């Protein structure tokens, strides 16, 4: 994806969804979404 690109995704699970940037996971690019 280009730096100016967009991405859309719908969370189907919750309340917490863990995610990471696979190409940059070694540098700590990961987080948690809180689904309400």
From TrEMBL:
Question: Which residues belong to any copy of the Blue (type 1) copper domain?
Answer: 15-36
Q: Does the keyword Glycosyltransferase apply?
A: no
Keyword Metal-binding annotated: yes
Q: What is this protein called?
A: Plastocyanin/azurin family copper-binding protein
One Gene Ontology molecular-function label: metal ion binding
Pfam families referenced in this protein's UniProt entry, alphabetically: Copper-bind (PF00127)
Keywords, alphabetical:
Copper, Metal-binding
